[in-house]
């Protein structure tokens, strides 16, 4: 790891150092932008990044508490002066500072550096090159760290031992590539392709292409696929890169710099070519166009860089699909499994340990790491495993299981409690799943170790129908809604009804980390469940019931007081327990005609009672809009808001302390942000549905299953109960293990429901049964075991709802508890 003193960093980034004590001589080795991935608090510097949507300065007090002492900030707050032994580097823009530091670090190295950009395939090409060149000391960006933030963090990992570095660069706006160019300064470029991805902010593909090419300004060689006409035409102009430096390969054009002849063999492809007078043949295990394109880039790179020895050529045959995400699953005996077994190098180990830390909180009792040999050339095994041992120790791992001959050889470096196996097979022979109990288990291994086999032993067995929750998409949605309101406006997130079907503790924990201000549940039991899972945020109970008042007080749950009766009876319970200043929330009915105080008289009476008591303090006053998503109701919505202002001010004016006012739900935030008052209540938008059709709100839950059986039926035969599904022609029918008891609505029967399978849309045939349903897959070439999406990115929940005359809320919350939730996070 690079080490620099705090004052050196300050001068590289052009900051002003505010230091307490002599911290400025201290050396730092890690940089961080995310408090979850800080391992070595004493020698890390935290960059408080600010985006339109989030602000790293918020995390500083927590980090000081954790032992972090060095910060790069753009706002130097008075409170920082009281942080003893801390140094603050004050700059105008913390992201720019991070980029400057990385660019400076890059300038210290003379090795070949590959820059990869393009619309699709960047991460796969990078991972495949890394696998192919596995015997060399190659650094690559971890996961898909390719953004304005990810690239500097990747480049920071450069060390003198590396012979080659591969970084990917992704952009979504014009002007961004110039920054990434300064940081990466690639000597070799790969342009994967130009397609639809991230098109929103560009006028045309041409404009996006021109921007992307800026990465390659200083390259000695630019590899691209000549079969892409737009790309070829632009590069041929020779504007960005002189003609002699562009290297176009092709499957079609024999006159290309490199012509690849392909021949399908079995399930794969044989690719043959000739380069600099030498013939090469590679065997490649996939036939789809995208994989072939990625393989073409890898091959062109390896040939032009003279790295194509027999061992490398042979490895093409063993390339595997790249999974880019960590998977979080329920394990046996109340364990939690974190699967990250597609690569293993020290940088990605560090990231994975960060996730482990973040998840291994109450109720989990221990942290277990199952780790294979690490793929890291360039440093000695002894150094490598000492570093691994140090990371595990910093991370307070309770138990290490090392798998592989190399890690086993260094067993002495690790804690005594560690156990070692020579192979995955040997581990599987001896493992008893019952030896794991209520632990958080990280499975981190190189692909060759096939840790998916361990995962399938340790994972809780459930049927194949699952609801996948994309936590990154959820955070993206949270940040999108935050971007619509002022930074100081509070956010209450509605996590009622199992967070609209997506889960309780997992979701709340992420929201807590991302500093939402309040959670709201429907009933006390939901709030208690959150408290028992260790959630500390304030929680409002929307429908408090009298019998649960004592529980609510015990678990610090704050009631919605919506009538005089509730006020009186809650007050009585507080008095019995001698509780004072208990936070409550007051609901005003402005036209929904559900719960709430609905007249000047009732509010006056309430206020007269409020001012003479001290059992309660009013935290907030709120109301709910009945039709915020529909323009036809705009006049009514305005009248509701006006009424709210009138009635709420009667309360806020009479009480001398601060009371938050709030009326906007998700659609309200999107359509009437000017009425955000001091807080908003976010619900369905967080979970991926914009009732206003806003494209920036991304689907975050995916209901999927896999095909149990396929059969052929003849024209005229029928499918399912009531013989409702009649085959018009000879057909192929696939059976899916999901039915209305799983929440797959029976109104989707008989062609109404659509599913996504093998890249195509298929329809439900016949009536949906309790635990199963059938789809018509005639001509779609599907197989038993193939994955089927019933709801998600391709089958939008809003479309589904519309076809059966309901709303997305009903579909999301209707997915039954027997469908297991799996959480994905990048
Ligand atoms: C559920 C609920 C919300 C959230 O509504 P969305 O339309 O999902 O954003 C807000 N306020 C109250 C009182 C609710 O019950």
Question: What features would you describe in this structure?
Answer:
This is Alanine racemase. Catalyzes the interconversion of L-alanine and D-alanine. May also act on other amino acids. By secondary structure, the protein is an alpha/beta fold. The protein folds into five domains: 92 residues, MurE/MurF, N-terminal domain (Udp-n-acetylmuramoylalanyl-d-glutamate--2,6- Diaminopimelate Ligase, Chain: A, domain 1, 3-Layer(aba) Sandwich), CATH 3.40.1390.10; 210 residues, 3-Layer(aba) Sandwich (UDP-N-acetylmuramoyl-L-alanine:D-glutamate ligase), CATH 3.40.1190; 132 residues, Alpha-Beta Complex (Protein-Tyrosine Phosphatase, Chain A); 212 residues, TIM Barrel, CATH 3.20.20; 124 residues, Lyase, Ornithine Decarboxylase, Chain A, domain 1, CATH 2.40.37.10. 30% of the residues lie in helices and 23% in strands. The strands form seven sheets. The protein has a 15-stranded mixed β-sheet, sandwiched between helices. An eight-stranded parallel β-sheet has the order 31-30-29-28-27-26-25-32. Strands 9-10-8-11-12-13-14 form a seven-stranded parallel β-sheet, sandwiched between helices. Helix 3 packs parallel to helix 6 and helix 11 runs parallel beside helix 12. The two termini are 24 Å apart. Bound molecules: pyridoxal-5'-phosphate. The site of pyridoxal-5'-phosphate has 11 residues, from helix 24 and strand 32.
List descriptors.
single chain, 826 residues, alpha/beta, Udp-n-acetylmuramoylalanyl-d-glutamate--2,6- Diaminopimelate Ligase, Chain: A, domain 1, UDP-N-acetylmuramoyl-L-alanine:D-glutamate ligase, Protein-Tyrosine Phosphatase, Chain A, 15-stranded mixed β-sheet, eight-stranded parallel β-sheet, 42 strands, 30% helix, globular, binds pyridoxal-5'-phosphate, pyridoxal phosphate binding, alanine racemase activity
């Amino acid at each position: 790891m690079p080490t620099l003193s705090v004052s050196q960093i300050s001068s590289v980034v052009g900051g002003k150092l505010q230091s307490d004590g002599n911290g400025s001589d201290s050396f730092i080795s890690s940089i961080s932008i995310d408090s979850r991935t800080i391992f070595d608090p004493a020698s890390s510097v935290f960059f408080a990044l600010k985006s339109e949507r989030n602000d790293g300065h918020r995390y500083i007090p927590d980090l000081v508490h954790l032992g972090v002492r060095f910060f790069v900030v753009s706002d130097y707050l008075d409170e920082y002066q009281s942080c003893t032994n801390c140094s603050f580097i004050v700059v105008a823009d913390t992201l720019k500072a991070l980029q400057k530091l990385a660019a400076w670090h890059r300038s210290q190295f003379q090795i070949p550096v590959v820059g990869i950009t393009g619309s699709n395939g960047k991460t796969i090409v990078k991972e495949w090159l890394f696998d192919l060149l596995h015997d060399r000391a190659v650094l690559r960006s971890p996961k898909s760290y390719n953004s304005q933030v990810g690239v500097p963090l990747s480049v920071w990992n450069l060390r003198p031992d590396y012979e080659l570095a591969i970084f990917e660069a992704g952009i979504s706006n014009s002007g961004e590539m110039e920054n990434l160019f300064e940081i990466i300064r690639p000597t070799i470029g790969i342009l994967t392709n130009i397609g639809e991805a991230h098109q929103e902010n560009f006028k045309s593909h041409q404009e996006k292409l021109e921007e992307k090419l800026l990465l390659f300004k200083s390259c000695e060689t630019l590899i691209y696929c000549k079969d892409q006409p737009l790309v070829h035409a632009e590069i041929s102009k020779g504007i960005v890169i002189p003609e002699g430096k562009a290297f176009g390969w092709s499957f079609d054009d024999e006159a290309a710099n490199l012509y690849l002849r392909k021949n399908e063999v079995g399930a794969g492809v044989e690719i043959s070519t000739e380069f600099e007078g030498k013939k090469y043949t590679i065997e490649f295990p996939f036939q789809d166009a995208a994989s072939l394109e990625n393989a073409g880039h890898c091959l062109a790179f390896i040939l032009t860089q003279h790295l194509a020895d027999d061992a490398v050529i042979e490895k093409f045959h063993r390339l595997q699909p790249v999974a880019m995400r960590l998977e979080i699953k329920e394990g046996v005996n109340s364990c939690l499994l974190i699967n990250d077994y597609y690569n293993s190098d020290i940088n990605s180990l560090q990231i994975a340990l960060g996730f482990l830390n973040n998840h291994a909180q109450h109720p989990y009792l221990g942290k277990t790491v199952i780790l294979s040999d690490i793929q890291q050339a360039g440093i000695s095994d002894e150094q490598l495993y000492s570093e691994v041992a140090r990371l595990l120790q910093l991370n307070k791992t309770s138990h290490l299981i090392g798998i592989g001959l190399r890690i086993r050889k260094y067993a002495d470096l690790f804690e005594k409690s560690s156990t070692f196996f020579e192979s995955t097979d040997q581990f599987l022979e001896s493992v008893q799943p019952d030896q794991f109990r209520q632990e958080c288990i990280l499975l981190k291994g190189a692909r060759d170790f096939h840790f998916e086999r361990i995962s399938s032993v340790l994972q809780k067995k459930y049927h194949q129908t699952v609801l996948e929750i994309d936590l990154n998409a959820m955070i993206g949605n949270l940040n999108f809604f935050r971007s619509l309101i002022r930074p100081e406006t509070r956010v209450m997130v509605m996590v009622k009804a199992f967070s609209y079907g997506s889960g309780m503790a997992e979701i709340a924990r992420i929201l807590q980390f991302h500093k939402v201000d309040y959670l709201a549940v429907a009933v006390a039991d939901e709030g208690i469940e959150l408290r028992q899972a260790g959630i500390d945020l304030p929680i409002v109970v929307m429908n408090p019931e009298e019998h649960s008042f004592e529980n609510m007080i015990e678990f610090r749950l704050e009631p919605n007081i919506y009538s005089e009766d509730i006020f009186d009876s809650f007050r009585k319970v507080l008095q019995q327990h001698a509780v004072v200043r208990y936070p409550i929330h007051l609901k005003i009915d402005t036209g929904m005609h559900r719960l709430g105080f609905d007249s000047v008289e009732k509010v006056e009476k309430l206020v007269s009672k409020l001012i003479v008591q001290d059992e309660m303090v009013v935290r907030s006053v709120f109301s709910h809009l009945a039709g915020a998503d529909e323009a036809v109701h705009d006049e009514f919505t305005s009248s509701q808001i006006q009424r709210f202002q009138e009635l709420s001010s009667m309360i806020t004016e009479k009480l001398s302390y601060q009371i938050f006012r709030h009326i906007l739900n998700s659609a309200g935030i999107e359509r009437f942000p000017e009425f955000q008052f001091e807080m908003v209540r976010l619900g369905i938008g967080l979970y991926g549905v914009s009732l206003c059709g806003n494209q920036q709100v991304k689907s975050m839950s995916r209901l999927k299953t896999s095909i149990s059986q396929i059969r052929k039926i003849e024209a005229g035969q029928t499918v399912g109960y009531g013989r409702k599904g009649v085959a018009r022609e000879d057909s192929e029918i696939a059976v899916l293990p999901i039915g209305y008891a799983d929440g797959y609505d029976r109104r989707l029967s008989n062609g109404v429901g659509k599913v996504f399978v093998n890249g195509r849309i298929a329809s439900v045939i016949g009536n949906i049964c309790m635990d199963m349903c059938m789809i018509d897959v005639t001509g779609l070439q599907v197989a038993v075991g193939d994955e089927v999406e019933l709801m998600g990115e391709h089958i939008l929940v809003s479309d589904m709802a519309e076809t059966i005359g309901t709303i997305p809320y009903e579909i999301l919350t209707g997915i039954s508890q027997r469908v297991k939730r799996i959480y994905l996070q990048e």
